[in-house]
Structures are given as C-alpha cells and as structure tokens.
Amino acid sequence: MALIAAIGVILRLVVIARATLSGDEAYSAAVAQSPLIDVIVAGLRYDVHPPLYYLQLHVWALFGDGDGWLLLNSFAWAVAGGVSLFWVIDRLHGRAAAIATLAVFAVLPLQVWFAGFLRMYAMTSLIAFWLYYWGERAVAARGRDTRVLAVFAALAVAMNLTHGSGFLVSGIVMLFALVRLLRLRDVAWGRLVLATLPIALSACYSLVIGALRETVGQSTIDLTALGQNLTIVTFGMGAPWQAIIGAVLVGPFLLIGLFASDSGPVMRWLVILPLLALVIVSVLVKPILTYRSAGLFTPFLVIGLGLLAAELAKGPATVRQVGAAALLAVLLLGAVNQAAQARREDFGTFARAWAASALPSEVLYTDDLGTNFLGVVRYLPGARLDSILDVQRPTEPEWRKVAAMIGPDVTQAINLLGKGDRTAWDKGTVARWYDRDEAARLARPYGLFNASPRDCTLPGFRASVIARDGDLTLWRCTPSAPSR
C-alpha cells in the first residue's frame, strides 16, 4: 500500500513541478488574491461557479502567492482525498477493496492532473468520496439517523457551492440512495425531505447563474467529441486516438455496469447515468458537457474500477488476477503520459516574450478571454492587480443598471465597475480588451494577445508573431505607414 501511495504522490508532484499557470488557473489566482468582498462579487460578475472554492483559496493565499504555493492547495486536497477514499472504502467494502481503489485513484490520469491544476476539481473529488460514504450510511439507517442526514446535507451543500455543476453530483448521489430506499420498509421519509431542503436551496445559485451565463460544452450529439471526452476522463488528455478509444470504452463500461456484482451499481448509477445526463442537458438545455464536467464523476469511476479490480483479484482464476493487474497497468501508463505532458499556453512564456520586445509606452491589448489579461499581467515586471475587479472591460448595460439601482456609494464600495480597462507595467500598459478604435486612431505599434487565428484585423497594419503556444498567439501590429 505504501508503494501505491508513493506512486500517486510522485506523479502528482511531477504535475505540480511547472513554472507558471495557464488558462483558468490565472483567474483562480487573481480571485484568490483579491479582497474578500471582491471574491464574492467577482463570482457574480464573471463566473459560472459558486464561491466556496475561491474562498478557501483566498485563505490559502494569505500565506503566499507564488505559483508553487497556490498549486499545493490542489495537491493538499488530492492527498486528503486519497486518505479519505481509503478510509471510506475500508469501512464500506473491506481492506482489499480499499487498497485496490486507492491504487486506481493513485494512477487515474485525470485525478493525477487535478492535483496540479489550480481549479476546484481536487476539492470536489474529496467531497464526492465523503458524499458516497454518508449516502451509504443514510441508506443503511433508512433515513432515521438525523446526524447522518445532517452530515450528508452539509456535504451536498458544499458540493453545490463549489462547482457550477456540483448539484448534478449531489443530485445523482441522492438518486442512488433514493432508489434503494424505495425498496425498504420503515423509511423516515419526513426526515429525508427536510434534509433535501438546504441541498435544493444551495443548488439555486448555480441554476440561476448558469441560466444567465454563456456556457461552454458539447451542444450536439457528436460521437467523436463524446468519445474524446470519455477517453480523457479515463486515460487522460495525452491519450492517442481519443475518438476511437472513447467509442471502444462504451462497451466495457456498460458490461461492468450491467453484470459486475460489486462495482456494477456504482458504475451504473454514478458513472454511466451521470454521463448520459450531461449529454441530455447539453443537447436539450445548455451546453455543459466537457471533460471537466464529466471529470466531476471520476471519484465514482475510481470507486467503480477499484471495486472491479478487487473483485477480479479475489477470483480463483489466474486470468482474473491478470485482468486486475492489466487494468492498473493501463491506467498507470496513462498517468505517466499525463504527468509528462508538456505545459501548454504558458502565460509566463508570453509575458517574458512581451517584456523583451515591447517598445516604451506600447499598449498590449488582450482579446477573447479575460484569463489572457490576468495571465500575462501576473508575470510582467512591475504589473500589479490588487483585485481582479480593478481592471474590467467596458461594462455591459445590465451591470450599469445594477450599479444605478444600488447607488454610487455601494458600487464603489464593492468595486462593481472597476477602476479602468488597463493596468501599467514597467514599459507600458496592458488593456483587458482589444480597443480597435483606439489602436486605429493612434496608428502606433501595439501588441495583441489572443486566442484567435486572426491577427490585428485592422486595415493599414501588418502583423508578425512574437510568440505562439497552443491556441494562444502574441502579435506585434505595426502600421504600414510611418507612425505619427
């Protein structure tokens, strides 16, 4: 068991051993390092996710703001998740199942990645493990143990307030418990109904915010994209032939769910059903299916595969034991491949490139994603943001209406509209949006950092690439005519 734990820890430390943040991680860092009230307001202004993850990261950031320290937050959640998982499965299914499940957790590629990813997924995994445990306790007690129901409700509320799709996780665990309680007699339905009230109320935040926000995800029944998401969830982002592997995986998943005795119910209710629900919601209601939202259910995939491995290993036939070993070996290969993946879209690389090439007083415009602005500003010398709300794009009309309703004093106190659309650094300024009118009027060289194949898109300017990494490009836009 010590070897299993050591392998899991080493793989996760390898993922953490990187220089800078990328993508949404820059947003997480900027929110965490903002004043407490701004952490709440930023969620309302920009995010689809509730504030619980950012609040705990804000407390963590009080003790340090470097990349390594912030990433250790996810690592700490992952380690706590591994310890919790072993304890939970040991109590519910026995020591052999606990060891097998911990082995799967140690090498499941997406869980390895979550431990070095500055987002809420390591935290939601820990909550999911405990939700599973207290859900099983609630069923065993037939809903009669008030303390068990209170703990389960508190964990479900925490899940709902950590991720925008967290209510799907808590809801599916509640459904798993409900279908079994319906077969029992003498169930305390009144207590169960009372326990669901705070869970339902806490889900309203994400439901309302999600209805108002634009979301990202698969919006059609695209078998190729579905196969890719399924492959990433199981074998990690670096897996080859993702669409093909994903299609092949459907069969084994269904077979396990239908015929395996120990792991079947978990796979059926907590893995297969949620993935189907994500597809249905994405196609019929709002696009939310990505490998990240599907990754919310990897804690139950860990439990399901762990119980399967334990089931195979205890069989009399050698072929079963070989099957269990093969399952773990394939996941280990995926985890090593995941940990070895090169860091893409490294904001530090772009910041260093711009610092080396920028002209005095030159403006760098950022386009497409707010994270691009936050990421590059984090690493430019002399740049500083005291709050994520200080620099904002031109405010949308609906938020100006909100500001008018609450009055100027409150608007300023909660920093609702910010203090401008750009910030300074040692050699110039960085703007949070691409002000094409300003760039055309000044007719001077400027930089553009975006996630688009387009370059400057202004007549009379020629573009050259300063740096490119993944989907992001840093451009230098120079007027064809002499600058004024």
Relevant terms:
484 residues; alpha/beta; six-stranded mixed sheet; 6 strands
**How many domains?**
2
Major sheet details: 6 strands, mixed
Oligomer: single chain
H-E order:
HHHHHHHHHHHHHHHHHHEHHHEEHEEE
Mean pLDDT: 88
Low-confidence runs: none
Major sheet strand order = 2-3-1-4-6-5
Strand portion: 5-15%
Termini separation: 70 Å
Global Rg: 24 Å
Which outline best applies?
globular
Helical run tally:
22
Class of secondary structure makeup:
alpha/beta
Number of strands: 6
Helix content: 55-70%
Description:
The protein has 484 residues and is an alpha/beta fold. It has two domains: 2-340, no CATH class; 347-479, no CATH class. The protein has helices spanning 2-16, 24-32, 36-46, 52-61, 67-93, 95-107, 109-114, 121-140, 146-160, 166-181, 189-212, 223-235, 242-259, 264-284, 291-295, 298-313, 318-340, 347-357, 370-379, 397-406, 408-413, 436-442; strands at residues 362-366, 422-424, 428-431, 446-450, 461-469, 472-479. Strands 2-3-1-4-6-5 form a six-stranded mixed sheet. Strand 5 (461-469) and strand 6 (472-479) form a beta hairpin. Helix 1 (2-16) runs antiparallel to helix 5 (67-93). It is globular and about 80 Å long. The chain starts with a helix and ends in a 5-residue tail after the last strand.
